[in-house]
Structure formats: structure tokens, C-alpha cells
Amino acid sequence: MANEKDVGFGEKFNSKEKRLINKDGSFNVVKQGSINKLRDTYSHLLEMSWSKFILFLFLAYFSLNVIFALLYFILGAENLIGADRGGFFLDFMSCLYFSTQTFTTVGYGTISPKGIPVNFVASIEAMVGLLSFSLATGLLFGRFSKPNLKLVFSENALISDYTKNNGKGLMFKLANKRNSVLLETSIQVIATYNISENGSVKRGYSRLELELSEVKMLPSQWTVVHPINEESLFRKFTAKELIDMNLELLVLVKSVEETYSHPVFARTSYKAEEIIENANFKKTNTTGADGSVLIDLDAINEYEFTN
Q: What digits encode the pLDDT tens for the residues 173-228?
């Protein structure tokens, strides 16, 4: 077990602190004075969920068209040649219809502007429309081309029988949720815990030795094993002592996604309370009728206690 000076969180510890890395891989770090999501719009639009992104596009498209429709309406629907007239609603809908034609540069020719003010607004809207669609296209390309790693981790880590040294091993599972194959996948597990030094409590770090820390290909699932030897934290301390020490295992994964051929990353963590002793993972893979290996990702969290 190699000692680490720091992995980026510092050595200071406060008893009110939550876990360092959430189960979904996000950090429990809030930066005051940093660039917020609204100010860093580009990154925010790339990182938000697809449902929110599509909703944002539709709302932006609708809102801009309504704004320009209001301008045409204020300037007068009579300045739109070919527009259907007949009261507030029909006049406004004609303005909105013309706005969508101008914004998208479709230009059916059924309505045309008349007069300098309306033509000026129409020219501005045409430019805004071209820029908006260019930005939307760039964002769509960025979202589609952005490589990311979709791993599923077991909810718990287990301390199970480890036959290779007739002892115990700390184990957890991970698998790729996509059908693509991961290449050159490596993993690090770093334990962080509280230690007393000169009358104060600080955070210490240790890298756990793993049975296997890298695989060339990951088409199925991987059971990561830390052999519990004489140097292991799990041999030196009891489960209760590790909980009192606020133990957290930081799991860092790096891989190459074959579709993009770019490095991708994933992370999660396990608190001491999430480590189950004397348990084994249930078998999640079977053999199909055609001889292929079938993996049930929904059963990756299932385990059973040993006698």
C-alpha cells in the first residue's frame, strides 16, 4: 500500500465535511466566486442533459420568434404585404408566421415587408437566425462528438474470501453500460482517512494495491480486487475503526473508448459504511444458447452473505 501525499483535496479536515466524491462521480466542492453556469453558457449547454438541451433549443427558437413578431406587430401588421388581417389575434399570428419565415430564411413569398423600419427589423432577424442555427449546429456537434465513459459500479464494496492467498480481499464490480469495447482501461483506488498528528486531525491518503490495475480490453465486466495483506488498512483496523476514521475509497478509472479513440474518465467512491464484510457478489453472467456471454447489468449490485 503506497502512501500518497495528496490527490487534490488537501490535508485539512473538518468534521462537517461530506464525502469527497459522490457516487455519480461529481465532487462535493463548491467554488465561491467561480464562473457560474449562466456566465459559462457554452460549457453549461454541453454538459446539461439531452432533454434539457432540446427543451432549451425549442424555447430559444420560440422566444426569439415571439420577440421579433412583437416588433412587427408594434410597427404595424399593415406593413406586411400579403398578411392575413382581422383583429389582434390574426394580425399577431401573421407577424409570428412572417417572423418564423425570416428567422429560418425559408421565405415562402406569401408575406413580404414594406417600409424601411420593417425591412430593417427583418434584416436583423435574418442575421440572428443564421447565427442562432450556426451556434445550435456547433453545440449539437460538440455534444455528439464529446467522448464520455458510461460505467456502472456496484453500490457496495465487499470483503470476500480471496482464494489466491487463502485470505480476504476487498472487491467491487464495474461494467461498461455501452455496447462498445473499452481499451487500455486502468484503475486506481486511493483510500482517504483521518489521522491524528501533533494534536490535530488531518486527512491522509494511501493507494491500495490491486490484484490487477489494468486490462487491455473490457468487453464485459471487471471485478476489482484489493488483496488484504499485512499492510492493508483492512487488516490493521476494524470496520468500526474505519468508520470512525471517515474512510473513503476514491475510485479513478481511465480508458480509451474505441469509437472515439480518445481517453475517457470515470470516478466514484465507497465510504466505510458501504463496505460489506463476509459477502460475495452473485453471478451476473450466463452463457446464451448460441454460446455468447450474457451479462445482466441490473444484477451487478446483488450479493449474498457467506457462512
A: 999 888 888 899 999 999 998 887 777 778 888 899 999 999 998 888 899 999 99
Q: What is the dihedral of CA 16, 22, 26, 27, to 10 degrees?
A: 30
CATH T-level fold of 2-23+155-305 = Immunoglobulin-like (2.60.40)
Cα–Cα separations (whole angstroms), residue 213 to 2, 104, 209, 294: 14, 53, 8, 24
Helix residue ranges, H only, the chain:
41-47, 50-75, 88-103, 116-145, 233-236, 239-244
Domain boundaries, the chain: 2-23+155-305, 41-145
Query: Same topology for domains 2-23+155-305 and 41-145, yes or no?
Result: no
Is the CATH number of domain 41-145 1.10.287.70? yes
The string of pLDDT tens digits covering residues 226-263 is: 999 888 889 889 889 999 888 999 999 999 888 777 88
Whole-angstrom Cα distance, residue 112 to residue 74?
16
Dist. CA 302–CA 224, nearest whole Å: 16
Type of residue found at 26? S
